[in-house]
Amino acid sequence: MMTRTVHRTQELAAFLRSRRESLDPRDFGLPERRQARRTPGLRREEVAELAGISIDYVVRLEQGRGLRPSAEVVEALAGALRLAPDERAYLFGLAQQRPRSADEPATTAAPSLAGLVADLSPLPAMLMNHRYDILAWNDQMAALLLDFGELPPKQRNSMWLCLMHPEIRERYLDRERVVRDGIAHLRAAWAAHPEDRALTDLIAEFTMRDEEFARLWAERDVQVNGRGSKVLRHPDAGVLALDFEVLMPLQDPDQRLLIYRAADEQTRLALNRLFS
């Protein structure tokens, strides 16, 4: 009986062969060779040269000899084979490696996602990147918390607001739990994006400026909750019990769509009055 490891190794080999054979040598500006190509696509030595690895290593990978290439080798092969983002993620999965983020985190919302945030009205909704920078929000979210557009861009960060903004700091009735959960989420994002210097600097700022953050960060809790509840004390609407969902778009997995809903009838009526 074949093991899962053998299946994964053989699929890695087959996938590399299929991607190599699907490429057109003319797209790479490779020199013409007098000897006719026996198989379609690039030769193994051409892939090896493009990836900066040995021909023998490419041969052994394509023959399924049980190798587990490093993340650097997988990245090089993905580039040499010009893999699409989904194919790149698949290759990393087969190699049991975690890809490094290829691009800088989004600092603006894609038009389609910004439109979705607006269309979710009357539910309060906002879009954040993995740093928890706030990229888009609807009118209901602004009424529930504050108008993020009036803040300097550096302060449009949900963790910064929870820690530093004088009004938002006092809005959560169970503030320590909210901060603790946010830090557990932020630690997971930090581990997944070790190359993100801006995120590292943000964590360093929080640690230096906020004793509560420093204490909770040192506990090293890691947890990512896709749903939960919060209780807010709104200056106009009173105490609000809210449920929330966090969704991640498939095409933008480093972004989070946060949606609030009333957790009880009293809150639903209060939100209706606030939003009207």
Q: State the name of the first-level CATH class of the largest domain.
A: Alpha Beta
Q: Quick one: overall form?
A: elongated
Q: Helical element count?
A: 13
The helix fraction, in percent, is 40-55%
> Measured on Cα atoms, how large is the radius of gyration?
24 Å
Largest sheet: 5 strands, antiparallel
Describe the structure.
The protein has 276 residues and is of the alpha+beta class. Helices cover 47% and strands 12% of the residues. The chain has a five-stranded antiparallel sheet with strand order 2-1-5-4-3. The protein is elongated and about 75 Å long. The model has no long low-confidence stretch (mean pLDDT 89).
Features:
276 residues; alpha+beta; 434 Repressor (Amino-terminal Domain); Beta-Lactamase; five-stranded antiparallel sheet
How would you sum up this structure in a few lines?
By secondary structure, this protein is α+β, with helices and mostly antiparallel strands. It is elongated, with a radius of gyration of 24 Å.
